[in-house]
Amino acid sequence: MRSYLSHLECTYCGEAYSADELHTTCPKCGKVLFARYDLKTARAQLNREALARRPRGMWRWFEIMPVRNPDHIVTLGEGDTPLLPAGRLGEVLGSDKLWIKDEGLNPTGSFKARGLSAAVSKAKELGITSMAIPSAGNAAAALAAYGARAGMRIYQFMPQDVPEMMRKESYQYGAHAYLVRGLINDAGRMVREGAKHKGWFDVSTLREPYRQEGKKTMGLELAEHFGWTLPDAIIYPTGGGTGLVGMWKAFHELEQLGWIGPKRPKMIVVQAEGCAPIVRAYQAGQRHAELFPNAHTIAPGIRVPVAIGDYLILDAVRASGGTAVAVSDAEIVRDMREMARLAGVFASPEGAATLSAYKRLRASGFLSPDDVTVLFNCGSAFKNAELIQAPTLPVLDPNDPAWLDQVA
Ligand SMILES: *Cc1c(COP(=O)(O)O)cnc(C)c1O
Ligand SMILES: [Zn+2]
Fold this sequence. Notes:
Elements: E1 5-10, E2 16-17, E3 33-37, H1 39-45, H2 48-53, E4 83-85, H3 88-92, E5 98-102, H4 112-125, E6 130-134, H5 138-150, E7 153-159, H6 164-173, E8 176-180, H7 184-198, E9 201-202, H8 211-215, H9 217-225, E10 233-237, H10 242-256, E11 266-272, H11 277-283, H12 310-319, E12 323-327, H13 329-343, H14 349-363, E13 373-377
Parallel strand pairs: 5-13, 6-7, 6-9, 7-8, 10-11, 10-13, 11-12
Antiparallel strand pairs: 1-2, 1-3, 4-5
Helix pairs in contact: 4-5, 5-6, 9-10, 13-14
The structure holds pyridoxal-5'-phosphate and zinc ion.
Zinc ion binds next to loops.
């Protein structure tokens, strides 16, 4: 078993770099680097059925993952999450072609596990011993968990209002955690400065080439699930955009391998009305998104006012014939409950936002009931318990003969 990783390539200026030295962003232009593989050779030697037969988990795609030596893999069993028919939720919405990819079942309760399993594994291979991350909470928790397994020192910088569970997780995993008076982009600036002085390796979203290699496995799983075709639409809650960009990259690689054809899903970005830089840039016809002022939303994972991969997200959305939608916090809260009540999925606010977007796009006619559509529930609501306003429950007295009268 060997990885066909060949080099790193700048997505902006095209410059090539070695994949066996440390890199963050492109030294020449400062933009995003992608891992590239020798897919011509891989095409002649690999067979998709063989990969499909391996034990479950994202590392079964080893040959098109960036780690050279399998001994360096740091895993907690991430990937191969359920792809669920929306069932009763689909019935209510009049479509039997609606699916939910439940990423909340990953280790640490979000799809950040995929990206950070890949990043920590590659960092281990390159001899890194301390890593730092700016995070809305889930990425920090995932880095802390994988870092704990790898025996690395982990530094994390999170907005002050980070959900309590994510803060507690980081503590349990033994990370050095700090709160920041500001948003994730402010935390990102601090990590970059700290990295210079303290020698941490910076694993910010898309400023490090390998997190998206983990997230691209979501796209590989979709292709496999649908019998080596792709759905008509994917709705993705977009913060830094790693997953959307990663899946788009996966589809390209699968076509190069001859495993799928040229058909692509409409890639659909959903953001919150209070923080919608990509939606704004999409509507304005721009390739780069400006910093979104006064960013606010109850969905921490998509409270990302500025994204280094803006052009990668917007290029994928446009090339795929997708779109970008902003939804309100009220719709998100409503749809967290609806996903739970009708589909049995305990969705994070970001995951629920994909349902809000789906409803809007069905109402506008952009999507039809016949479009095979995948909603990404990217995390578990176990982490966002404070957003759920459950009423106090009636308390029954077992010695009261009339207790049953109180039951509906
Ligand atoms: C990080 C995160 C997102 C955004 O993911 P990106 O790939 O960075 O855009 C969405 N939802 C949740 C729960 C997250 O943790
Ligand atoms: Zn460059």
